[in-house]
Design brief:
The chain is of the alpha+beta class. It is built from 3 helices and 4 strands. The chain is elongated and about 110 Å long.
Amino acid sequence: MTRRPHRARSGPRSGVIARLIVDRSGVSAIEFALIAPVMILIYFGLVEFCQAYMAERRAGHTAAMVADLVAQSDTTNKVEVDRVFAIGQMIMKPFPEGTLATRVSSITVDAAGVARVDWSRGKGSLTALTKQTVYPDLPAGLVDANETQSLILGETAYVYQSAFSQVLPQPITFRRKYYLRPRTVNTVPCADC
C-alpha cells in the first residue's frame, strides 16, 4: 500500500493566514505604533529638562545679581533691597516668579574666623536671618585668615513645577547662594534692616 503525501488543506482560512504571514505592507505602521510613545516621552523629557535647566540658571543668576547690586552700594535700606528683589523677579521671566524666594544678608567674619550676621532681608520662604547670630554655612577658604572681612550673601530658592506632570510629577526646589565682598566700602550697612 502506497501512502499519498499529505497535502495542506486549501481552504479560505489557510489562504488568509498564508497571505498575512507573507504580507509586509503594515510592518512599518506597527513598528511606528510601538516606538512612537517612547520617542514622544523622550522628546517631552528633553523639553522638560531644558525648561528646568533654564529655570535653575535664572534662579542662580538672580542670587548673583541680588548680591552684586547690594555689594556695589555704599549703604542700603529696606526700600532699596526690595527694589533689588523686584529686579530679581524680572530675571525669572517667563517662569512664574510667585515661587521665587530671595534673601540678601551682610555677614562679617572676625579675625578668629567666626561669621556673624550684620543684617538680613528676605522675601518669600527665605526669611531674614537673625542679627548677630553665628552663620555656620560659610565655605572654607572664602575669607583670609586672621582678618576681619565683610561679605554680602545673596540666596534664592525657586520651586519649579513641570508643565508635564507625566514627565516630572513632583516640584523641584533650586537653591543658590552667592557670596561677594563689598565693592566700595568695607561693610555695607542697612539703616533699617
